[in-house]
Automatic annotation (TrEMBL):
All copies of domain Inhibitor of growth protein N-terminal histone-binding, residue ranges: 9-103
Alphabetized PANTHER family for the sequence: INHIBITOR OF GROWTH PROTEIN (PTHR10333), INHIBITOR OF GROWTH PROTEIN 5 (PTHR10333:SF42)
Species this chain originates from: Musa acuminata subsp. malaccensis (Wild banana)
Gene3D superfamilies in UniProt: 6.10.140.1740
Name this polypeptide is given: Inhibitor of growth protein N-terminal histone-binding domain-containing protein
Length: 103
């Protein structure tokens, strides 16, 4: 009777372990994709930030037009949205890393 249960246990273990490598590979490749997307968003955000820093500020001697002000606000909102998106991707990547560790 004990041998029969052991045989079932071994079969279950072998079935689980054969899918483990595929599951781990899937998690790691998903993490890689998320990482690439996050880096792309972060680089885009850096460029947008540099552009905004180059715009005339309220305290500069340059004349500020309303169009510049509207463009600045639009860019600022885009930067904030990009940062939230990058943070979300990185959070998802951490969750996947935890799942991979548990496997």
């Amino acid at each position: 009777m004990a041998i029969a249960r052991t045989g079932v246990f071994v079969d279950d273990y072998l079935e689980y372990s054969s899918t483990l490598a595929a599951e781990l590979q899937r998690l790691l490749s998903t993490m890689r994709e998320l990482d690439e997307r996050a880096h792309g968003i972060i680089n885009q955000t850096k460029e947008q930030t540099r552009y905004c820093l180059g715009m005339p500020s309220h305290y500069s001697k340059k004349v500020i037009h309303e169009d510049d002000e509207a463009e600045f606000e639009k860019m600022k909102k885009e930067i904030e949205a990009s940062q939230e998106n990058a943070l979300s991707l990185c959070t998802e990547k951490v969750l996947l890393a935890q799942q991979a560790y548990e496997l």
